[in-house]
């Protein structure tokens, strides 16, 4: 199958859905899927009709089971190159918000994809695990994990390789909400539309602000936040918001 066949892209009311469509292999990350994900992210980045991206997997068994171990064995993969698969914020930049809609298992590379999204919604059937210790592989991409969850929880995840239930993942802060399996797509679409309805410049600056504390000391984070938000304050949208409130009408955002 070509990479455009195993990764689907479509936009619904401002929300771009990127779907790994390889359910017969539990949406494992073979070469075509990895390249397809890079293509989909590139498409999203230049798609003005898409304000938010939802990443999910086809079927009800797996969001993504991780790397394709058969392919790894056949190619004798050792150290994956930096561009082996998309790592949002590391080897590919996405300024607009991203949501992982996790159905079924999110193991290894699937955990990576969910971890790197800005928000995570989980179906009740979802399971999360960094399973590399069970197969002798590595997870250097898990470096941000102790910023997302308490360090002792990160230790448990990485040292045991055991899966977390959706409820446990919610309790430790790895996911934002758990919903019935049948409601996952609707919940992700609704969340995406709520974000897409907001002022786009403010949304993008908000995303950048959240990550500042992981990248800078506190004093430097404040200075960088001031730099990020100045063009938002100076934008036409910053005048449009108060004017719309005054005139009792919905705001008409231009992103400028």
Automatic annotation (TrEMBL):
<protein>
    <submittedName>
        <fullName>Enoyl-CoA hydratase-related protein</fullName>
    </submittedName>
</protein>
<keyword id="KW-0443">Lipid metabolism</keyword>
<keyword id="KW-0456">Lyase</keyword>
<dbReference type="Pfam" id="PF00378">
    <property type="entry name" value="ECH_1"/>
</dbReference>
<dbReference type="InterPro" id="IPR014748">
    <property type="entry name" value="Enoyl-CoA_hydra_C"/>
</dbReference>
<dbReference type="InterPro" id="IPR001753">
    <property type="entry name" value="Enoyl-CoA_hydra/iso"/>
</dbReference>
<dbReference type="InterPro" id="IPR029045">
    <property type="entry name" value="ClpP/crotonase-like_dom_sf"/>
</dbReference>
<comment type="similarity">
    <text>Belongs to the enoyl-CoA hydratase/isomerase family.</text>
</comment>
């Amino acid at each position: 199958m070509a990479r455009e066949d195993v990764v689907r892209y479509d936009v619904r009311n401002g929300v771009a859905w990127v779907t790994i469509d390889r359910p017969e292999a539990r949406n494992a990350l073979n070469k075509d899927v990895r390249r397809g994900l890079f293509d989909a992210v590139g498409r999203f980045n230049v798609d003005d009709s898409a304000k938010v991206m939802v990443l999910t997997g086809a079927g009800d068994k797996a969001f993504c089971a991780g790397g394709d171990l058969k392919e790894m064995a056949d190619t004798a993969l050792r150290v994956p190159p930096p561009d082996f698969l998309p790592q949002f914020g590391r080897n590919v930049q996405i300024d607009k918000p991203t949501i992982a809609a996790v159905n079924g298992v999110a193991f290894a590379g699937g955990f990576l994809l969910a971890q790197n999204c800005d928000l995570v919604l989980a179906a009740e059937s979802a399971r999360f695990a960094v399973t590399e210790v069970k197969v002798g592989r590595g997870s250097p991409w898990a470096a941000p994990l102790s910023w997302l969850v308490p360090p002792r929880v990160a230790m448990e995840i990485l040292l045991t390789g055991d899966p977390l239930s959706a409820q446990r993942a919610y309790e430790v802060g790895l996911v934002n909400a758990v919903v019935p399996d049948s409601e996952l797509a609707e919940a992700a679409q609704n969340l995406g539309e709520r974000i897409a309805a907001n002022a786009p410049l403010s949304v993008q600056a908000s995303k950048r602000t959240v990550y500042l504390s992981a990248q800078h000391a506190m004093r430097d984070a404040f200075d960088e936040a001031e730099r990020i938000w100045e063009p938002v304050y100076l934008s036409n949208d910053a005048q449009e918001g108060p004017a719309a409130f005054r005139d009792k009408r919905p705001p008409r955002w231009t992103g400028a």
